[in-house]
Amino acid sequence: xxxxxxxxxxxxxxxxxxxxxxxxxxxxxxxxxxxxxxxxxxxxxxxxxxxxxxxxxxxxxxxxxxxxxxxxxxxxxxxxxxxxxxxxxxxxxxxxxxxxxxxxxxxxxxxxxxxxxxxxxxxxxxxxxxxxxxxxxxxxxxxxxxxxxxxxxxxxxxxxxxxxxxxxxxxxxxxxxxxxxxxxxxxxxxxxxxxxxxxxxxxxxxxxxxxxxxxxxxxxxxxxxxxxxxxxxxxxxxxxxxxxxxxxxxxxxxxxxxxxxxxxxxxxxxxxxxxxxxxxxxxxxxxxxxxxxxxxxxxxxxxxxxxxxxxxxxxxxxxxxxxxxxxxxxxxxxxxxxxxxxxxxxxxxxxxxxxxxxxxxxxxxxxxxxxxxxxxxxxxxxxxxxxxxxxxxxxxxxxxxxxxxxxxxxxxxxxxxxxxxxxxxxxxxxxxxxxxxxxxxxxxxxxxxxxxxxxxxxxxxxxxxxxxxxxxxxxx
Length: 476
Ligand code: FES
Ligand SMILES: [Fe+2]
Description:
This protein is of the alpha+beta class. The protein folds into two domains: 18-48 and 191-465, Naphthalene 1,2-dioxygenase Alpha Subunit, Chain A, domain 1 (Alpha-Beta Complex), CATH 3.90.380; 70-182, 3-layer Sandwich (Rieske Iron-sulfur Protein). It has 14 helices and 20 strands. It has helices at residues 18-22, 49-52, 54-63, 185-189, 192-196, 218-223, 231-234, 276-286, 289-293, 309-325, 334-338, 404-407, 415-436, 451-472, and strands at 46-47, 70-74, 83-89, 92-98, 104-108, 123-124, 128-129, 136-137, 143-145, 164-170, 173-177, 204-214, 242-251, 256-263, 340-345, 349-353, 358-366, 369-382, 395-398, 442-443. An eight-stranded mixed beta sheet has the order 13-14-15-16-17-18-12-19. A hairpin with a 3-residue loop joins strand 15 and strand 16. The protein is globular, with a radius of gyration of 24 Å. The structure holds FE2/S2 (inorganic) cluster and fe (ii) ion. Residues 230, 234-235, 424 line the site of fe (ii) ion (FE2).
């Protein structure tokens, strides 16, 4: 199942590679950051029907979403027995519930009587009593009470427990899967468990959680965060410090892909050279978490002679973070302090690696609407050493017509980061409508830098075909 070898080397941009940039760093390169497998995925065009045809969304609802592992919430959001999160995906709804013994279980949020949702809001529950006719279940899913039992002879002697989905956890995240015969979560996570071990996501807390309704298909939204080709046009303010075209893309397994982009190194696309001070200045202009933590403003940080902006900012970040959370970052590599290290788990989740406060993304269809989607943006910070775990930030909702750049700073997101997301968002409705306007009916993906998108589509085909074969009994 896993890609075995580097048997294929697609053309790369002639600029130095991400791994070559890391050779100049002040610490040894962690092995897991070195180049990984790059299989030949071909160059086939992608039909736009996958994004614009409601029939494809119906197929995803039947054969994709009920069959894959998906991150439903963070463990810290349901710390006590009875704590419940309602997780919804393309018309399905699950109650994610902390049990008395500390375990987490996921029950279908649908009354066994006439189907009403048992809960539409999360919170701490002592039972799930259906608001329609009052039939109730315990928080462990066992049947509790039926006020109209005299009229249900068909239920006598039957198990009326709530049906359950599979639950797994990794690094403080709770995953669910509605397919009782699913590939084990461990197998899906594969290498990501080892690669992320040192970033201790289980000991992080939700610093902010922004949930934005995006006017495009969920895949269109996800794909806007899976390559660096768009930085040159969509995010020009990043180019003085973002080595976009030097980025490294790896297909670690059928389920895990990743992209590494060096920061504090200018893009080869820049029209002129930037001094080390100007590179730092550009970062501060956009809003660096580490520099902001140090109280620095543009023009106030000078790179000492003989140092680069990259090694300087890596050290500033080590010190700033350490002062903030009490952890020791002296052994952390420069890359792990400043770079964009994004791992994706098939099909719709992205987890940033590294020691900085890390972003996590999840994209879902917005109910049954294939033309809008829900993007969750979490920022996870480490629990300060020796201090109690801070409470996770509540979900901060931003509507389809509302602006991230105007509203997200109220959630704790920096204004600079919100501006970057706004730039991404500005394309998306026009990608959706542009695909409908397409004369050719297909999209073309770059062979190297957009291969993570291609891999996702190939896996979509595989998983959905397997689902259809199972449903029709044609599986071999
Ligand atoms: S639908 Fe739930 S008790 Fe009737
Ligand atoms: Fe972007």
